[in-house]
Structure formats: C-alpha cells, structure tokens
Prior knowledge:
- By secondary structure, this protein is mainly beta.
- The protein has three domains: 2-158, Sandwich (Jelly Rolls), CATH 2.60.120; 166-219, no CATH class; 237-300, no CATH class.
- It has two helices and ten strands.
- The strands form two sheets. Strands 2, 3, 5, 6, 7 and 9 form a six-stranded antiparallel sheet that branches.
- Strand 5 (84-91) and strand 6 form a beta hairpin.
Amino acid sequence: MATERQSPDTVASSTNLTNGVTEIDDDPDSPDGLWMASSGGDNVNTDVRVTFPTPTGDPTVGADLQEFKAWVRQFDTGQTGDPDCRIELWENGSLVRAGGETSITGSGQMVTFTWNGNELGTADGSLVECKVVGTKSGGSPGARNTVDVGAVEWNVDYSAGATPKTIAATAVGVAAIKKKVFKSISATSVGVADVKKKSFVTIAGVGIGVADLRKKMFVTIAAASIGVAGLSTVLRFTQAIAAVATVTAQLTTVVKFKRTIAATATGVASVVTNYLGGGDSGIPWPIARLRDWLDYGKWK
Length: 300
C-alpha cells in the first residue's frame, strides 16, 4: 500500500460561498489564509462540493483508510452562536455517506471524515467527491452564525499496482524495455536489428528481405518472392524452376543449351518440356540422346 495527498481540482457546486477552488486547494494542515466565505451573511447555510484527480492506484479497501480533511471557521466570531459542519462522501454527483456534525467554535478548526474504499462504485477513485456542509446556528440576531471553508484535501491510501508483464509494442519501444524481452515480437512493428539477444524462429518473407536476416535462414523461400539470382547463398535451385518466373536468359547457369532458340518462336515452357521430357516432335527420346544431338548435331 501507498499514500498520497490529493487537492481539489474543481468546484462541482457551492451554495452561499464566494470564490472558488484556488481558495481551498491548499493543505488544511498548513492553510494559506484564503477562504470561500459566506456570501449571505451569518444567517444562511453554506456548502461546497469538490472533485479530485484520479489517484495513482485504486483506493484501498479497509475501514477508515481514506480520509477527508477540511479547514473551516465561524463566519463571525463576534456572534454567540456556534454553527455546525459536516463532511460527506459523494461520487459522480451522488451522496454516498455523510459524516457527523461538528460544532465550529472559533476562527480556524479542522474537521475530518474517514471512509472505506469499498464504498465506491468506481474502484479507481476517479469519481470521488468531497462535500463540506455548514449549518447555521440561527436564533436571535446576536446568536446567528455560519461556516466559511478555507482548505480541503483527500488523503488517499491506495494499492500500488505491479508492473505489467505484457507491454504493447505500439506504446513502448524495445529500447525502453529494461530487463524484459518479448518472447514474440511482431515483425511489422519491430525490426530484426532492434531485437536484442532474441531471434525470430520464423520470419515472414514478405516482411524481411534475405539481406536482413542475421544468423537465421529460411528453410523454405517462395520462388515467386525471390529471384534465382538472389538465392545465391541461401538455397540452390538446379532441377525445378517455375517457367513463369524465370526468363530464358536466366536459364543459362542452371540448364545448359548448346543451341540458341529464338524466344519469339519457342516459349520457355515448351523448351523445358521438350528438353527434359522428349524431343522437338514430342517423341520421348532419352535425355542422354538429346544431349548428344545438341552437342554434335548428328545421331550416334
């Protein structure tokens, strides 16, 4: 658990009081002397309801762990009557619970109210509000008095959250992650060069080129993605090459032809078929006989 002091950030509502949040956002234990004072004299009730920033962690569940404090005074200490003051817990504009009345007897007095985190409907405390209510003393003109408000605070007891085990790659870069390494990092968001002490087991060929691979090689590379010339040190294709992916000029280092065949007269697909499966007329000559014929231009 941890604690922090929260000052009011807005005045949600007030009745018969002048000024605003800057007069009451100081520490009640060290007030600055500024006040939200009664605007209706000594014979009216007063109140102010304030909101707070969201605490660092969820308000802790436990009896009296949450505390509101308010620094208040009598509107006119020359009057004989003593007004009352109470503090209430509100949440998002609705009363949760009211504290007891305290008689205000002088020119500066502390009023407190404690409550339990389980009284909230929203656990993170983002909708917590504090209301300070002054009840006039009434009676004869010389006994009438009411309440001014000088400072309000919420002393939060909250649960310190653990560091998340999973951090979205879109929010935190690899360089910012200390002592933690993703077991799996999307190739689309983190480059190979940025991965420290970890390597992909599988990297999509569409996302990373062969030149970018470090200490890892593809087991299978799609011929449609990488040309024959780019396969130099990765895989060697010497027996089967897709006819649609390889032009005649690139076949010279894979399959040896002794004659020149015009590309306009004979398509690559038919050349490969005839050479590997039979003769020019479709007769299934053995490949060895075709080689002899191409080499010497005659039958043996």
